[in-house]
Amino acid sequence: MRRSVILGTGSALPKRRVSNAELAMRVDTSDEWIVERTGIRFRHIAGDDETTGSLATDAARRAIEAAGIDAADIDLIVLATATPDQTFPATATRVQAALAIDDCVAFDVGAVCSGFLYALQVADSMIRAGAHTRALVIGAETFSRIVDWEDRTTCVLFGDGAGAIVLEAQDGDDRGILATRLHADGRHNGLLYVDGGPSTTGTVGKLRMKGREVFRHAVVNLAAVMNETLAVTGHTPEQVDWVVPHQANARILDATARKLNLPPEKVIVTVDVHANTSAASVPLALDTAVRDGRIRRGNLLVLEAMGGGFTWGAAIVRY
Ligand code: COA
User: Fold this and answer.
1) What does the pLDDT read at residue 149?
2) Crossing angle for the helix pair 250-259 and 31-38, nearest 10 degrees?
3) 88-97 pLDDT tens trace
4) What number does the ligand 1 atom closest to the CA of 29 have?
5) Under CATH, which number does the domain 2-171 receive?
């Protein structure tokens, strides 16, 4: 069977790291409140010389190096972002140009915090259909540019960064991406959205969120889609080596793991040092755990995410 196997991972963070104490000088908040309600201690914030495209390119370079291939071997780039460098062209084409890839297919996918899961399913489908052999799948964001820095209920939650993987078509049954499941429910647009856009206000807009409601939906939807995807491959939660979740809030990670009877030691947590980097958070967490040696070849992974839309999804991967 033709499968998409993860050859390598990479990630990139802006140079500037911002603590809760630093934010408390800007808005009426405290390190204690942020840590207790979210588990977040630090986030990286892009400087003037750093963009979604530049972070994505750095992450992609590292993934290509880890994969042991040449950039020219890539024939597909799918980049998930809600904070593109330009309204168009796609940020994926900026990455392509920066990597000096002469010809390939390159486009962006927009599903906010679930964007990486959406991009993964798109790339996996194109690889399994036989149209492509080596794909870069990237999640990259600069949410600091759309956060309302006057709104303490949201500005403390987000950070910037990028993560990338290289997928390669290989033959085999129990390896690579084994199953993906995606969902969307557009009725919940008003719970998490940006109040601007090219076709409505003509402005970029700022992020707005009803955090408590989002929290409630997140735990229910994430547990359900993880169970649904595990049922496709026939694995039990006990067989899972690592959960690589979207990093929105430590309490969401705990509550979701509890619902699946997964011990917290099996959950990769980076929300404390990255905060919520939207589409970048799953590949950033994946790369972190691959590079620190926790995730090893042969491990069974569950990737999951939920975000604005709402959109949500999960993937079962034999790394
Ligand atoms: N510092 C201090 N106090 C704050 C604060 C901050 N940064 N942000 C909010 N508060 C206050 C509120 O004003 C409120 O005060 P009040 O009771 O006097 O009105 C109080 O803290 C509780 O607010 P509430 O929103 O009920 O807190 P919460 O426990 O629901 O936590 C979130 C808020 C945002 C951390 C939480 O709801 C959450 O994580 N939601 C999911 C967000 C998410 O993951 N979004 C992305 C999904 S992709």
Assistant:
1) 97
2) 20
3) 999 999 999 9
4) 1
5) 3.40.47.10
CATH of the domain spanning 176-318: 3.40.47.10
Q: Does the CB atom of residue 20 touch ligand 1 within 6 A? A: no
In CATH terms, are 2-171 and 176-318 the same topology? yes
Catalytic residue among 44, 246, 249, 274: 246
Predicted pLDDT of residue 41: 98
- Bridge-partner residues for 315, per DSSP? 180, 303
Cis bond upstream, residue 245 (ω within 30): no
- Amino acid 108: pLDDT: 98
Decide if 261 is catalytic: no
pLDDT at 237: 95
Q: Give the type of residue at 48.
A: D
Distance CA 208, CA 214 (A): 11
* Average of per-residue pLDDT across 222-240: 97
Q: How far is the CA of 211 from the centre of ligand 1 (A)?
A: 6
Q: What percent of the chain has pLDDT over 70?
A: 100
User: Reading across the β-sheet that carries 300-307, which strands appear in turn?
Assistant: 176-184, 311-318, 300-307, 242-245
CA angle 303, 104, 133 (to 5 degrees): 55
Amino acid at 81: T
CA 297 to CA 112: how far, in whole Å?
Answer: 29
CA atoms within a 13 Å half-sphere pointing along the CA-CB vector of 97: 9
Asked if residue 211 has its Cβ within 6 Å of ligand 1, the reply is: yes
Q: Which residue's CA lies nearest to atom 30 of ligand 1?
A: 212
pLDDT band with cut points at 50, 70 and 90 for residue 28: very high
Residues with Cβ < 8 Å from 289, sequence gap 6 or more? 242, 244, 268, 295
DSSP, residue by residue, 252-305? HHHHHHHHTT--GGGB---HHHH-B-GGGHHHHHHHHHHHTTSS-TT-EEEEEE
Domain locations in the chain? 2-171, 176-318
